[in-house]
Amino acid sequence: MVVDLLNKQITLILKELGIANPQLNFEHPADENHGDWSTNAALQYAKQLPDINNPRKLAEIIVEKLKPLLKDIPEIWQVSIAGPGFINFSLAREYFRTEIVKMSEKAPQEYFAKKAKENKNRKVIVEYSSPNIAKPFTIGHLRSTIIGDAVANLYEALGWQVYRDNHLGDWGTQFGKLIYAIKTWGNQEDIDKSKQPIKELVTLYVKFHEEAEKNPNIEDDGRAWFKKLEEGDDEAHQLWQWCIDLSWKEFQSIYGELGISFTENNGRGFGESYFEDKMSEAVDLLETKLAPEKAVENGAHYAEGEDGAKLIFFNNEELPPLMVMKKDGATLYATRDFATDYFRLKKYDNPDLIVNEVGAEQSLYFQQLYKVEEILGWYKPGQRVHVKHGLYRFKDKKMSTRKGNVIWLADVISEAKERAEALSPDKKHITQTIAIGALKWNDLRSETNRDIVFDWDELLSMKGNSGPYVQYATVRAKSILRKAALEEFSPGYGDDAWKMNTEELNLARHLDRFVETVQLAASEFAPHHLASYLFELAQRFNVLYNTHKIVTAENSDARERRCVLTQATVKTLEYGLSLLGIQTPEEM
Ligand code: ARG
Fold first, then answer.
1. Separation of 521 CA from ligand 1 center, angstroms?
2. Are residues 244 and 291 in the same domain?
3. Same structural domain for residues 204 and 327?
4. Domain membership of residue 466 as a residue range
5. Pocket around ligand 1: residues whose beta carbon is below 6 Å from it?
6. How far is CA 15 from the centre of its chain?
7. Å from CA of 138 to ligand 1 middle
8. pTM recorded for the entire structure
9. 3-state SS string over 462-482?
10. Are 288 and 339 contained in the same domain?
11. In this structure, is residue 111 part of a structural domain?
């Protein structure tokens, strides 16, 4: 990349001037009239050079020394100094021409070929969705599904080996209660026939808790059933499996609607129950490694708490204690996470990254978990990543007033479809693509850890920052290309062909930033960078389209140039959307 060359040259110049180990920043100036790249190197280092001691003067010296070197960097067209000493660089139109022509010709996957080579041995496990059996698939799980899938796609684009896992909540003491409830009040045949079997199971589970208030003894019955389940009792196991099958069927239909899949454990993901027989090994490691006598050196220890449960205590109460074993010896969510992460360490041969996409409300828990896994020597800081998501805030009265009640995802999806259909009633075949695109975009356009306002009108608006808006820009650009009959234009290699006007240059400049945007979004686990980029791209394309004729441009050079730009835009929008898990309809 050009910026790497600039970085190298300016670093050398500063070293020559006496700076030991210069670390430079390069940014895109917010005002594009200032060029394509900018560095504050002179402001950073002037103080360290007493002879110069003036950023503006240092900037002048750097630029003087840089000028002769620039003949080897033909991508740079202009260098200038601005304000107190910023050095700004503008890229040559010839550079943009080469890049945009390449983009228009290649498959978008190829844009990342160089990165992919560097990354081909890197492994990332992205764990997302992770709903709970016999419980509703919540909005939180929807967010996890959408965001996790996008993060996995970004890494895949960059050539990483990506493992998509789903940590289903399919084990735990709650299954004892559920089994008791099914046996006591439930009717399996009726539930099997029900349209919403999970709702029935949830009702039974709620009933258990209501009854337990009146008659606490049934808590013991629940525990006993879970014990049976753990011991492999046939009846308990069958009932549990029945709940799993009912739930999985419903989850699968949601995943089908959303176009989501997983790669691990035959596409089901390694749910909590997979680790049932793997927990004792992990607990043994905790016992040995975190023995109380080694607390000072480790920073934490594993011991029995006052009531007989076993917990990890952090020195100086740096973090609250983390329970690993209940007093009756039952395992917990955390126990299974330890087993999971130990399993991952071995199975994937120490993966470079493990991402848990889980709601922000579990932040403290993941801090505890990661800390312990570092102490155990399993993972290094930064290797474990909690990608947090915030909540949905519903603008819609109907939804926000369902106090305490969960919002069923299936209802949200069907409402999205109804509204998408109303948007273009004559085109039923695109309803699904628009509805799901709108839902996903609404989620991915803002920083994951923020709460998002859920407003149906905004979600499906054709004017604002919405999925349908970007889809529509893509569809329109595609139809222009169809009109231009692709084979009729070839990239403008004529001398004057690439004298771009402002609108073209603005578009070209933005197109050229696609690869770095994907890299940024992946490295920060932040798909919103890509969404903002795509929105801006759609806008810049629309400006070009509204200002200049494309197919019937004033001359053949302009026509070719704009068609090449349109071609690159279509590829980038379509592929960029696909990385967010959003499809582009053929027409709209
Ligand atoms: N099933 C959990 C829940 O619904 C999320 C699991 C997250 N992943 C994990 N490894 N703990 O809250």
1. 23
2. yes
3. yes
4. 411-579
5. 127, 130, 132, 167, 169, 337, 356, 358
6. 39
7. 12
8. 0.94
9. CCCCCHHHHHHHHHHHHHHHH
10. yes
11. no
